[in-house]
Amino acid sequence: MKRLSELDSGRKARILSFENNDLFLKLMEMGCVPGELVRIDQIAPLGDPISISVAGYSLSLRLNEAENIFVEELS
Fold first, then answer.
1. Which fold has domain 2-74?
2. In terms of C-beta density within 10 A (0-12 exposed, 13-18 middle, 19 or more buried), how is residue 11 classed?
3. What pTM did the predictor assign?
4. pLDDT (tens digit, 9 = 90+) per residue, 20-49?
């Protein structure tokens, strides 16, 4: 199990759970639900924010938000 913030650009993963319950509802409303596939599209030059594809659309997340999402990296 890894954090979404630890993945490199181009990698795919499945969302497993969330660490911070305060962000849980916000992330769920954006399509980040357990079981959903996610792909890291781009990482900003300084590492923050990151752009991901989830639930059929692109989403920009701050690194501190991505650190709260536990994923299973797919090959």
1. SH3 type barrels. (2.30.30)
2. middle
3. 0.88
4. 777 888 888 888 899 999 999 999 999 899
* Residue labelled with tokens 């399509």: 31
CB-facing half-sphere around the CA of 2: CA atoms within 13 A: 12
Residue 66 contacts residue 3 (beta carbons within 8 Å): yes
* 11: its two tokens: 């990698």
In one-letter notation, the amino acid at residue 55 is: A
6, two tokens: 């630890």
Domain residue extents for the chain: 2-74
Rounded distance between C-alpha atoms, residue 49 and residue 13, angstroms: 18
Task: Write phi, then psi, for 61 (nearest 5 degrees).
Answer: -125, 140
